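Here comes an entry:

___
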Amino acid sequence: MTMVRGGGVSGGRAGRIGARARAHCAERFAGPGFGTRGRSSGRGRPLRRAVAAGLLAAAFALTGPGAEGPRAARADALTEIGARGMLRLGYREDAPPFSYLDDSKRPSGLAVELCQAAAPGVARAAGLPEGQPIEWVPVTAATRFEALTEGRIDLLCGPTTQSLQRRETMDFSIPYFVDGAGIVFRKGGAERLADLTDDPVGVLNGTTTETLARKVLAEVAPGAQLVIFDSHVKGLEALQRGEIEAYLGDQSILLYQLGRLRPTVQPVIARRTLSREPYALAMRRGEAGLRLAVDRELSRIYASGAIWDMIGDALGKVQISPEIEAIYEVVTIPE
């Protein structure tokens, strides 16, 4: 167990990026990936701002108080947390830089830090004093949602894509990051999915990227064989050994893992992503009180600019695209 702690504040940078992000946002969202750069003229800026707000509000709308649907008769999460005197947070051990075990065997990553920073506010909402201990519960990509629905965790702190299909069975906070499904190819082999005629292609079990991989391969490389892995590390190591020709996963995670693994032969990294993956903190469906408490804390973190220190600590010296910068300004909820 560990005690909650907050994040730092860097408000100046948040103000500086806001105007630039809005100016770039509309035209960049029309592209297939987040890695592109460019400068736009001042013409049409009000329209771009309006379009940007509309597009990013769509991501926020996924987390709004929509139809809750029926729930099994049980106490809500805040009541359970108050009675237990402890918040249970689920984390992944293998999804850096968002959720993983660090060298000291402690939960780390951007999603973990956000959950930890939100914990005091959740404790207050549950009628508990600040400083209550947190129980960190390890989950995998395959077991994380079951842990939520069965009540083993109150909040899922990891790179979880919010989608309409998932909204049918769980709730989400406002977004905290946007990634995209990327591809790495074995060096010396095919460098396009369409060229993988009958080759093995790897993907992580239980992810939206697995669903996407099945769809895309069926369309462009129907002879390719999909190989399922239970961790990104195992998939990338299989790629290094030549057991698969390509591996798909969320791009930020793939790049971070490759940096840690330092393969002797660098794979070929596709420049464009196949999807957009809005990450959010997940909870059981119908948890309006918990969602409000979490969104209040995330909004405070975004508005203060503390999110930039947290991103820097988790992702290192990475250049954030204007689209991602704009999200923190648009989805922040005022009091």
About this structure: The CA atoms of residues 208 and 327 lie 21 Å apart. Residues 181-269 form a domain with the D-Maltodextrin-Binding Protein; domain 2 fold (CATH 3.40.190.10).
